[in-house]
Amino acid sequence: MNHDCGNLKIERSNKTLRQLTLETLRDAILDSRFRPGERLVERTLCDLTCVSRTVVREGPIVARPDLAQAEQIYEIRELLGPPAPVPPMRPRTI
Q: What does pTM read for this prediction?
């Protein structure tokens, strides 16, 4: 299956290509672009992200947590408390 490059195309930055790809795929999973339990095939991911096969490994699967796992995640989040506020960025001067 050949996908159009650009759907999840990786843009260059100071991060490694592997980091960018991981973040892009994680965001796509969180945005429900892949179904829970769906097997993510290396070749398809390479086509979608326009990266080489060395960046993507065969066999990742979108997690499908059961009720006990989901409850545990929320219990831990509750124990950790709310996320810390992010301070506003100040303009940089050159």
A: 0.56
- From residue 10, alpha-carbon distances to 3, 29, 41, 78 in Å are 14, 15, 17, 34
Residue ranges of the alpha helices (H) in the chain?
17-30, 42-49, 67-80
Copy the structure tokens of residue 47. 């086509």
Per-residue pLDDT reduced to its tens digit, 34-79: 888 888 888 999 999 989 988 888 666 788 888 999 899 889 988 8
Backbone torsions φ then ψ of 28, nearest 5 degrees:
-65, -40
CA distance 10 to 49: 6
**CA-closest candidate to residue 49, choices 5, 2, 1:** 5
